[in-house]
Structure formats: C-alpha cells, structure tokens
Amino acid sequence: MSAKNKDAQGRWRSKTVAFRVSPEEDALIEAKVRMSGLTKQDYITRRLTDQSVVVQGNPRVFRGLQTEMRRIAEELKNMEAGAGMDPDLMDRIGFLVSILDGMRTESDWRETDPHGRAGRKEKANG
Q: Alpha-carbon distance 104 to 57, whole Å?
C-alpha cells in the first residue's frame, strides 16, 4: 500500500485513477512529464483539471529538456528525406519550444532583478 499524501490544499489523495493509453501516447506523456519537471501524477492532475503547467528551472527540468532534445535530434537524423513529420514528434517539439521561449537569459534576470535571483516560473501550454 502506498503512503498517504496530501495535495497543496491539504486534501487527502486517497483515490486511484487509471486508464489505458497506446505506446505512442505513453511516450508523448512521458516526454511532456520529463520536460515539465513535475511528477507524472502532478502533471496529469494539472492537465485534467485545466490548471496551467508551470515549469520551474531546476536540475530535473534541465535533464528532462536535454534528454528530450537528444531524442528529437536522433529521430530527425533517422527520418527519411521527404518523409512526413510524425504528429507526435511535432507535438513534442512544440512543447519543448514553448518551454524554451518562456526561458530568460541571465542578462534578462539582471535587468529585472538587481539581486540576480533565479526561480522564474515558465508557462508551458501542453
């Protein structure tokens, strides 16, 4: 039996929700979870309850983005010339681009925060 836990509002998470997906859908969900830096439970809960998925820069997010960029690059290398782009690959690229577009450079931080504090939240629409 798993440990009891509470959500951010202090509610007990005592219900289990399960559903089936195809291997392709699973790969897409896993990629988006990795890039978001959230747990799969938190990512799916936020998406299903129409809450925004907010990506906060940290080592876990960095590794997820790095891993996903490598996978995308490998798929693009293996793609035949003139072949159509896989819709799932396009979706993953779009999600990755939305995260990267929301990121700010170190100089952006200095312009808005004289203390150079990190921790800006990035919104990903996916």
A: 10
In the chain, % of residues over pLDDT 90: 16
What six digits make up the tokens of 60?
Answer: 């876990």
Q: Are 66 and 52 in contact (CB under 8 A)?
A: no
Phi-psi bin for 119: left (phi > 0), alpha (psi -120 to 50), beta? left
What tokens appear for 59 in the block? 């080592």
How many domains would you assign to the chain?
A: 1
Provide the domain limits for residue 73.
23-78+86-101+119-124
| Confidence label for 26 from pLDDT (cuts 50, 70 and 90) | very high
Tell me the two tokens of residue 110: 């200095």
As a whole number, mean pLDDT of residues 37-60 equals 86
Do residues 124 and 99 make contact, with C-beta atoms less than 8 angstroms apart? yes
Q: What is the DSSP letter of 7?
A: -
The answer to whether residue 18 is domain-embedded is: no
